[in-house]
Amino acid sequence: MLQIVIQHAPAHEGSRTLAEFQQAGRNETAERLVGGGAAGVEALGDLAFSQKLGPGNELVAAEEFPQFFDQLFVKGYWPGHSGDIGIKWGFDKWLSQFINWLSQSHSMKYSYSDLAKMIDHSLLHPTMTDADLEAGCRLAAQYQVASVCIKPYAVKQAVEWLRGSGVLVGCVIGFPHGNSATESKRYETELACRDGANEIDMVVNLGKALGGDWGYVEADVKAVCDEAHKHGAKVKVIFENDYLTNGGAGLSSDDFKRKLCEICERAGADWVKTSTGYGFVKQADGSYNYKGATEHDLALMRASCSPKVQVKAAGGVRDLDGLIKVRDLGGSRCGATATAAMMDDYRKREAAGTLEGAGGKIGSGGY
User: Fold this and answer.
1) Which is the catalytic residue, given 234, 273, 291, 325?
2) Domain region containing 189
3) Is 312 annotated as catalytic?
């Protein structure tokens, strides 16, 4: 529960230390504010409100809540001012609105930017036309996501579409199966970076990994990382976890993923990534489907890398609750096509003052 404590001290307390000042007023009542003196609000419990002394030892309200203190303080112990504190608003009205604002702020545990800047807006479907790609870039700029993840041939144009927007351009390499020769992947990376790509999403050679040729896998990843880093770009390495449910190379599924995390970090990867969003697996009924990012895999991958390597979810994250779930599990990026639906939902919840939703479900396929 959020508690608000009003602190008061008489005017002209300049000779006191902050600790003495706070102690002097700790048990005073809010009503005495009307009579003058310096005041501050301390939020105890889940939120912290910091107080500091100004040049003349005056108590200065913390910058987190300036709009509310502008409403309360007319003059007083602020830098460049002197005299008693006056009240512009009725105190009860001010305190009620301040508490309401704090409560809403507390319930919005992630800002719009926190979540939007997790999204790599995916523009990879093979049927997407140039017009579709341009529209996708415009949408990414509108919602201020982290990046677009686009087809290699369109990188140069995407850079132009997004110029000045603050949205990065990412490109896929060896996509979606990771079967290209290492030199092909390296050269794809070189071309993408020359065209302006800021980030590279490469796919590991799964056949080599499942066969236990770890040296090949590490060299493959390192070649792409070295080339990208030479151009100032960062690299995300895709595992395609739907293909790894039975493990491989004598390792269980989880140990296999841990091994890949270890190799990718050693090779210089900036992220490890769950899936391409196109790793379809044949089901018992003959249909093809996939899970994509799962809670289990995200937690495992986060725990298997040092803090310098980030984790990206892809596939199966279709709504705002899923995006929040990825964040809660330690993911810093998420591939998505449902960007508009996610962030429009955020704005609706923001207006209502809470991020509370259905709790988040991921790993159900769909990109």
Assistant:
1) 273
2) 112-352
3) yes
